[in-house]
Amino acid sequence: MRIWKLSAPFAAALALVVVFPGTASAATGTFSYELRRNSGHVEKLKDPQNGKCYSELSGWKANNQTDVKATLYRYDDCEDPVVQLAPGTKISLRFMSVKFG
Hints:
Layout: H1 2-19, E1 29-34, E2 42-46, E3 53-54, E4 60-66, E5 70-75, E6 79-85, E7 89-91, E8 97-100
Antiparallel strand pairs: 1-2, 1-4, 3-8, 4-7, 5-6, 5-8
């Protein structure tokens, strides 16, 4: 009987984890950007996490080949949104950070 009392809460918690998996998700695809204007150096974010702020990018010429929108920001830490870039689109614009979803 004592084992049942100890295992019942564990079983209930396990059932919740299986039924309600974590909410963290990732965009599918690649977001690429040129580091500095006309530098030719391209960086890529593969399957970026939704809701996460990717900062200190110093980006130019963003290309959103993910399946979610990308919001580009003027400053680090995703402050002062400049534009939302739809999936499959690109733009030439200076930005410092990006967030997906």
